[in-house]
Amino acid sequence: MVDFLLAFAVGGAICVAAQLVLDLTKLTPAHIMVLFVSLGAVVSGLGLYGPLVKIGGAGATVPLTGFGHALVQGMLEDVRQFGILGLFSGGLRATAVGITSAVVFGYLMAILFNPKG
What we know:
Strand content: under 5%
Number of strands: 0
């Protein structure tokens, strides 16, 4: 039960931060998405996002900051294993399932539903 509460608190805090940025600035949702992926990557590169994942679990890995974290962790792992080429392969390898799911489900929704507009 505590794990669920921690995930809710961490994920909720990240979402509140994104909503505040949206409400208090003139940034578009696309800018905020890029900002949060980049922040997740930078914080992960500094070694600070891993402890947050240990505390918040899915609350830290599911938001966009978690995607940036996954990119950096994949790159670091592949650099250790394959050298400098890991900079190019690691991020894609670590996020391939998420990217593929987004493409496949987005395509299926486009086929199944007729968007208005």
